[in-house]
Specification:
mainly alpha
């Protein structure tokens, strides 16, 4: 789906071909189509933050007395920052999937 298989270099992170190589579907359906991926990325980020807090709380416990809440917050923020390029790509994939359904017959024609 993306022109480069790797996230590096970051300047080419979101470059996509104009059309799908399998089914010839136009990748950008309309101008500004991918602005909605911000909402998908936001939801995925909240999911990651929640999972970090749940797992940290289950394994180590959360308390203000020993600052473990702030340690969990630091871990969660660090994880989200490191995963941001991946989140941007997966958000585009999910957003496109919401609006365009894959048709096996179209790829055979």
């Amino acid at each position: 789906m993306f022109s480069t298989p790797s996230i590096f270099p970051l300047k080419d992170l979101l470059k996509m071909p104009e059309r799908c190589t399998t089914c010839s579907q136009k990748m950008e359906i309309e101008v500004g189509f991918y602005y909605g991926t911000g909402y998908v990325s936001y939801a995925l980020t909240l999911l990651i933050l929640a999972l970090v807090f749940v797992f940290y709380g289950l394994f180590f416990g959360l308390s203000y007395k020993n600052n473990s809440v702030f340690i969990a917050l630091g871990i969660a923020i660090s994880l989200v920052v490191l995963l941001q390029p991946w989140l941007m790509r997966i958000s585009r994939v999910l957003y496109l999937y919401l609006f365009v359904k894959y048709d096996k017959q179209a790829s055979k024609e």
